[in-house]
Amino acid sequence: MKIECKNVWKYFGQTTALQDVSLGIADNEFITLVGASGCGKSTLLRTLAGLETHSKGDVLVEGKAITGPGQDRAMVFQHYSLYPWLRVSENIRFCRQLGAQTHNRSSADVEAASGRADALLRLMGLTASAQAYPNQLSGGMQQRVAIARALMGKPQILLMDEPFGALDAQTREVMHDLILHVHRLERTTIVFVTHDVEEAIYLGHRVVLMAPRPGRIDSIYDVPLPARREQDMKLAPEFLRLKRQLLDRIRETSGMKTDLDQLQRLTQVAEERNPV
Ligand SMILES: Nc1ncnc2c1ncn2[C@@H]1O[C@H](COP(=O)(O)OP(=O)(O)OP(=O)(O)O)[C@@H](O)[C@H]1O
């Protein structure tokens, strides 16, 4: 297993953000995490990134306990977190240049990093925008820069927290196919948090559904689609069936279903009392 969570608990004061989470993620797997607000998706991701310490249990990458952030893992957030005063190409190179200064790397290392930055600019379709500043780019383009920057250090694991949450529907579709392409080419293991069930199914090999209060894994679904995804698959019966199943389960686990049933009952009672 590339990543293993064994009986992981996380408390924030009285809040149990993660309750006994156990999950194994294989090398090169693409895992998506969905679930109602507050079910612990971001906490789990941040724990994998080493940005959050867990209260109990084991979090392992290739059998070794995570003790903090590392070069083997990179994170992409919903907000682009680019340096506004640096051009696109400088944003992508920034971390490596810093590494070269602080660790006395040779100029050959810096040269290699430069080659990688150019390759990533091409891969992400950013070559023509290399000299632009972030505020001159659309949201989708800025997120491409953020992904390229995350890939710069050749991480084995990419952790993505609602990276396309702020983008419009058409740009999201383009980004979906782009990230699948990156996944195939770079052979990274990806853990991807989203609120969007369709996105979770389209991207994931497996969808992990989490539930709130306390935050926990409710169920895990294999995605019954071919490895190579195409937009048309979103209309396939097996896609729609899984989408329905996930949406129903999210409603049930978040308490929304009970609220809706109650509303329906109250409306019925009101109608019986005051027939039109
Ligand atoms: N730093 C923190 N301090 C206190 N409580 C926190 C902190 N971070 C998260 N929590 C709580 O832990 C629980 C899980 O939060 P988390 O952000 O991981 O959920 P989520 O599924 O990512 O939610 P959303 O989909 O709304 O982003 C929530 O009840 C949240 O309020």
TrEMBL record:
GO terms for molecular function: ATP binding; ATP hydrolysis activity. Residues 3-233 form the ABC transporter domain. Keywords: ATP-binding, Cell membrane, Membrane, Nucleotide-binding, Transport. PROSITE patterns: ABC_TRANSPORTER_1 (PS00211), ABC_TRANSPORTER_2 (PS50893). Belongs to the ABC transporter superfamily. This is ABC transporter related protein. It comes from Polaromonas naphthalenivorans (strain CJ2).
